[in-house]
């Protein structure tokens, strides 16, 4: 893992914070470590296609999750929904180098939050379809208790 990049991303995370005018929001929590990531997406149209204009995140998570989320929100700019759907946790954390086994789920949390946000935006099948109304963007802390509840799966996706 690239410690320098990790430290830079932690010291100066990009796109950190709630996005009041977001079109979609997704939250995921890990019952195992109690961490949580929430991601907001704002869409725009470019050349007739619906693309991500910007993304932001909040995290009650470890530093690796913050670093991956910071990089992911940068990577997402300009991507279509389909392109964003195909972005894996491994790709989002590529700049950091391979994550140690104990930290793989940190990247998966970010991927889960992105997928939850993309699902929250559905149905929006056509590029020309009107953009979805802004989803309620509650505070991360409000959902923490629920997301931290024991569950058999590794991740719990909380639909807004
Ligand atoms: Fe759980 Fe990193 S240790 S998100």
Kindly list the characteristics that best describe this protein.
Sufe protein. Chain: A, alpha+beta, 160 residues, binds FE2/S2 (inorganic) cluster
Short description:
This protein is an alpha+beta fold. It is 36% helix and 20% strand.
Measured as a percent range, the helix fraction is 25-40%
What share of the residues does DSSP label as strand, in percent? 15-25%
Low-confidence stretches: 127-137, 146-153
Individual helix count? 6
By CATH, the architecture is named: Alpha-Beta Complex
What sort of overall outline do the alpha carbons produce when their principal axes are compared? globular
Any idea of the CATH class? Answer: Alpha Beta
C-alpha end-to-end distance: 33 Å
Rg to the nearest angstrom? Answer: 15 Å
Q: Order of helices and strands, N to C?
A: HEEEHHHHHE
Largest beta sheet, briefly?
Answer: 4 strands, antiparallel
Q: What name is given to the CATH topology? A: Sufe protein. Chain: A
How many beta strands in the DSSP annotation? 4
Mean pLDDT: 83
Oligomer state of the chains in this structure = single chain
Number of domains: 1
User: Which molecules are bound besides the chains?
Assistant: FE2/S2 (inorganic) cluster
What is the strand arrangement across the widest sheet?
3-2-1-4
Q: How would you classify the helix and strand content by structural class?
A: alpha+beta
